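fwd from M.: "can u put these together and see what the complex looks like"

so here's what she sent:
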Amino acid sequence: MINDEIRSLCDEVFPFWGHLSESDRENLMRSTQEVHFERGTNIHDGGECTGIIMIKSGSLRIYILSEDGKEITLYRLFAGDVCVLSASCVLNSITFDVFIDAEEESDCVIVGGCAFAELSERNPEVKIFALEAALVRFSDVMWVMQQILFMSLDKRLAIFLLDEISKRGGDTVRLTHEQIARYIGSAREVVTRMVKYFVSEGLVESSRGGIRVLDKSRLRRIAS
Amino acid sequence: MINDEIRSLCDEVFPFWGHLSESDRENLMRSTQEVHFERGTNIHDGGECTGIIMIKSGSLRIYILSEDGKEITLYRLFAGDVCVLSASCVLNSITFDVFIDAEEESDCVIVGGCAFAELSERNPEVKIFALEAALVRFSDVMWVMQQILFMSLDKRLAIFLLDEISKRGGDTVRLTHEQIARYIGSAREVVTRMVKYFVSEGLVESSRGGIRVLDKSRLRRIAS
């Protein structure tokens, strides 16, 4: 990836890129490196400031880890996404540690945390970008937390999907999210989000024709 | 509370107050109201934009609520604190709903969300303040999540405190947080934070002399 390609990725990912001075852009470029990660590589493990990670291809999984090795996936990032929780030096108000693995073979461009932090202290637009990017993840995490703690919709949706395919045969539930929401007493947006989550976990496949169950046994474990 | 008092509270709570134009200050003041809440009052319940809440006295509890009425306390706010999660119109990236109750009789000053949002779109310093204030709570919530999901330190500390008082008699554990951390295999900061949490829950009282157990039966429930 030549310099021009990194520049055009920065331009795509950072809304402030076009407003920076050329010297600020060069400064960021100097602290930027391309990294290729094999599937399963740990990219970030907690406290240190790895930097701002832009994902060119592949996917990253962001999770927390207990002392005894229990993991909880908070969210995933894909091509075009940017990860700021890996840059603790940019976000002073973030005091928790996350872990990041490459879930597939991934190509990333990492902007050094120090250079980014220095710029964000001088440039409010950069600071606002970093804060907003982190805050979006707050919503993701709250969603995971509510699902896990209140044990509600994931279980209800899993039970519903298993019931449907056992009643009607085959492996596909041919209903809209709206219809499913009505059946399980929820809202369409909530069902859509949970289906998306099931898709990302490889449990189901979603298409215009409906929801196809891919992993019945894991779905059963969620339902039980 | 006369206008001057509200102004001096704003000056205390908002780091940007001194940098605003007089017309911006007057505009915020016009959308500001004092509210007194009796203990137990629900102040905010989810989606609507209640506004930015400044706490003059008392305390507020911020929690999430499941469909079947299960609550999880995320954090508490006290005199001098400011609550931004109650202003969904200011923070577009926050998509989850929190509930807020007055846990004690509380005096608050509430700045209207619309006026604040409008200002924050024009003034990066105001925007950065709101985003950072929200992001600090992300860390609080992650802490709660880790404690609950990994079922670790709250349980270990409760077991330790109960063991100690049953071994030594009385109701006070005369050890430093450092010493307790070593006994239960944790770090001093982590123990300090958990003790603070136990104090806020009315389970123990903390002083220079040690930690006094106030509610043995609830502590036993945590330990079991």
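replying to her w this: The mean pLDDT of chain B is 88.
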